[in-house]
Structures are given as C-alpha cells and as structure tokens.
Write a structure and sequence with these properties.
By secondary structure, this protein is mainly α. Among the domains are: 127 residues; 191 residues, no CATH class. Helices cover 86% and strands 1% of the residues. It is built from 12 helices and 2 strands, in the order H-H-H-H-H-H-E-E-H-H-H-H-H-H. A two-stranded antiparallel sheet has the order 1-2.
C-alpha cells in the first residue's frame, strides 16, 4: 500500500492525513503502557547482559593479573636462584682457592716470626762487663806516688794498660753493635713478607665479605619474591619491560647480521642448487641460504643450552655432564664446518662477481677488465665475515631467551589492559542503556502530547474535585 492510497481515504488528502494521524495517536496512546514496559524490559535486559559481560571481563582481568603475577614471581624466583647459585659457586671457588693457600701461608708466617724472634734475641743490646781488676787499680790509685817513684811508674803502667783495655772493650762493643744492626736489617725482609701476607689475607677476606653482602642482598630480594611482595612484582614488571625492549633491539641487530650473511651466500648458492629452480614463488637458492642460516642459529641455541648459558630446553640442561660435553663438541664442530662453508661461498661470490664484470665488459665490446691488485682485501673481508657471522649468531640465544620470557609478561600486561578497557566500556554501555530506556519512553510520548495533556488536566480536575467534596457536604 502506497502513501497516495492512504491519503485517498477521503476526497480530501489533508483530511485523510489528519484522520490517520489521529488513529495512530490513539493506537499509540492505548498501547503506551505496554510499549513503556517493552522498552524498559529490553533496556533492562541489555543492561543486565552488559553488566554480566563487564563482570566476566573483570573476573578475567583478575585471573590474568593473578596469572601474570605468578609468572613474574616464578621468573624472578628462577632468575634469583640462578644468580644465588652462581654467587655461591664463585664464593665456594674463592674460599677453596684461598683456604688451599692458608696452610702454606701460616707456615711462612710461623717461620718468619721464629726468625724474627731469634734475630731479636741475638740483637739485644748487652753492655760489656767491667774488668775484675778495676777495683785493684782503684786501690792502687789511692796510694801516694809522691813518696815513692816506683809507685809512680807502676801507676803509669797501670794507666796505660787501662787505656788499652778500654780501647779493646770499646772495639768489642762497637763490633757487637754492628752485628746487632746487621741482624735488625735482616729482620726487615721478614717484616715485609709478613705485611704482604697479611695484606693478601685482608684482600681475600674483604672480597669474601663483599660477596657475602651481595649474597645477603640477593637472598633478601629472593625472600621478598617468595613472599610475593607488591614491591617485588613492580620491580620485576618494570625490569621485564626493559628487558623486552633491549632484547628486541639486540634481535633486530641480529636480524641485520643474518641479512648480511644471507647476501653473502645467496649468490653462490644459486650456482650450486640452480638459479632457475623454484619452490612455490621462492628461489631454491634463497631457501637453501635461509636453511643454512637457520641451521647455524639452531646449532648456536643447542650450544648455549649445552653450556647452560640459556634454559630454553630443559631436556638439554638435564643431560649428564658427559653427554652435554659431547653435544658441545658436536655442535661446535657443525658450526665450524658451516662457517668454513660460508667462507668458501663468500670467496666464490667474489669470483662470480669478477667473472660477471668481465663478461659484461666483453659483451659491450670494451677492453677486458684489468686485474685489481687490491682485490684480495675485499675477498679476505668477505671470507672473514662469512666465517665470523655464524659464530656471532650463536649469541642470539641469550636475547632470544630474554625476549621470550619478557614477551610473556608483556602479553599478560596487555591482556590486563584490554580487559580493563573492555570492562569499562561495557559498564559505560550498561549505564547508557538505563538512561536510554527513559529517553525512549520520552520519545515515544512526544507524538502523544495532546492526549497526555488532556489526561493531565483531567487528573488535576479530578484531584481538585475530590479535595473540594468534603467541604461541600458540610452544612451550616
């Protein structure tokens, strides 16, 4: 039915439109209560559904946050255990090394102290005893030599003998002092040796104390991680983010090195496997070069795992020591072989480049390309890069492990953020539908403003009549 058919209800289209409008308003007015209930039911249902979804997002956020917390604490505990284990190994090695030299050091100190004590006793300053005949000389000296000339001669001889004895005694005393000073000088190297030994002991003890303080600090942080302190979680979270960006930067540099390595071996690989062979839309030579690089990276990962530098594969770390050493030798031999192959391919690349230049020159009708005397420099550089880059790619395992562990934390944080944003949007929409129901009711009532106005007037009149009726029944 078209609009013209509706307006042809009467001979006058405006009158037909007025009649239809009145009928529509009447129908809407009669269905007003039911329409309001339907609007409220639909909005309440949507509001409850959105609230349920928001609560689900909130519970999921709490679950992810708790899981992320557990992951951070587990990773931090594992890292701290590894650090503490290595610190104990270092301090154990240091103590074993230092204590192994303590018996010999103690023996040297005892010998030096014994020699010093012996030399000190021999270097004691003992004054010479006066001669026994000094008293006799003193008694003779009291005699009067003026009465007897023989006595004077005797006293002169005694005086001369006394001077000679004094000189001889003084010489012996000086000789004893020289011996004493010589013994004291011989004590100086012993003192220096003792001082050096004590300074060595002091350095060793200071080093042990420093390492013990470091272990105490790591143990305190480990205890906080085991307790699950919020401070530890915040520190681990920020540290994980920093490690993620740093490891991503290092991996980007490693990808650049792999690209250079690919450019060195892709050209000669085309001569080996055929430059016109394709696998899908890719050259067979490019795939072969990528496979060689991936094998080198895999061997580097296995080598680092065998050396227990990384722990991406717990099975390798759990192998016996003999098996791990064999794996180290095998992986290193494979890497050495691949590096040698890449060096040969880099040399072949330079030869192919020179042949291509010579062929191009001949095809253009030019003179043959003269031999470059400095060609060996670029050839040696390419061969060196081809031999060195595979060993440099070994260390990709370290940032790769850090990137994997930190990526797990970063994804957890992103999940928490997305769930929180989703919960906020759902709560916002649920509240919006509450007010939207009221707004739809008001919009529904807009075309019904005339009957609603009449209804309001009638209700007011009815209320006024009801309120005036008791007073009207009162008679004087």
């Amino acid at each position: 039915m078209q609009l013209t058919d509706l307006l042809s209800f009467t001979p006058y289209p405006p009158l037909s439109a007025i009649i239809w409008i009145c009928l529509a308003v009447a129908v809407l007015y009669l269905a007003r209560a039911s329409a309001h209930k339907i609007i409220q039911c639909v909005c309440v249902a949507i509001h409850d559904s959105l609230n349920f979804a928001a609560e689900s997002f909130t519970r999921a956020e709490q679950s992810v946050r708790q899981r992320n917390r557990e992951v951070l604490l587990d990773a931090g505990r594992e890292a701290k255990e590894r650090i503490i284990e290595r610190e104990f190994e270092r301090i154990g090695t240091s103590v074993q090394k230092d204590l192994a030299g303590f018996p010999s050091l103690q023996r040297k100190l005892s010998e030096a102290i014994d020699e010093i004590e012996t030399d000190h006793q021999q270097a004691a300053d003992v004054p010479p005893d006066p001669p026994g005949w000094v008293r006799a000389v003193d008694a003779v000296a009291k005699m009067d030599s003026r009465k007897d000339s023989a006595v004077g001669e005797i006293l002169g001889d005694i005086h001369n003998s006394l001077l000679k004895a004094q000189e001889r005694t003084l010489g012996e005393y000086r000789s004893a002092n020289r011996n004493r000073h010589r013994l004291l000088c011989r004590m100086m190297p012993e003192w220096r040796r003792i001082r050096q030994a004590l300074s060595t002991v002091e350095k060793q003890v200071t080093s042990l104390l420093t390492r013990s303080q470091s272990i105490d600090r790591h143990m305190q942080e480990y205890e906080e991680i085991v307790r699950g302190a919020d401070r530890s979680v915040q520190i681990l979270s920020s540290s994980s983010l920093v490690q993620f960006f740093v490891s991503a930067l290092v991996l980007t540099v490693a990808v650049g090195g792999a690209a250079i390595n690919f450019s060195l071996i892709a050209r000669p690989m085309a001569e080996m496997v055929g430059g016109t062979t394709y696998i899908g839309s890719f050259h067979m030579a490019d795939i072969a070069a990528l496979v060689i690089i991936m094998v080198e990276i895999s061997m580097g990962l296995f080598l680092m795992e065998s050396l227990r530098v990384t722990r991406l594969f717990p099975v390798i770390s759990a192998l016996p020591d003999k098996m791990r050493l064999r794996m180290v030798m095998v992986t290193f031999a494979i890497l050495l072989m691949l590096a040698s192959v890449e060096a040969g391919l880099a040399y072949m690349r330079e030869i192919l480049l020179q042949d291509e230049l010579a062929t191009t020159s001949l095809l253009r009708g030019g003179a043959p390309v003269a031999a470059n005397p400095y060609l060996w420099i670029t050839t040696a550089a390419q061969m060196g890069m081809g031999f060195t880059l595979p060993f440099a790619l070994i260390f990709v395992a370290i940032p790769l492990e850090t990137f994997v562990h930190s990526l797990r934390t970063l994804l957890g944080l992103l999940g928490v953020g997305l769930l929180r944003v989703g919960s906020f949007l759902l709560n916002l929409l649920s509240n919006l539908f509450v007010h939207l129901g009221t707004a739809l009711e008001r919009i529904y009532d807009v075309p019904l403003f005339v009957p609603l106005w009449i209804e309001t007037k009638m209700e007011k009149a009815s209320e006024a009549g009801t309120s005036d009726k008791p007073y009207a029944e009162v008679k004087p």
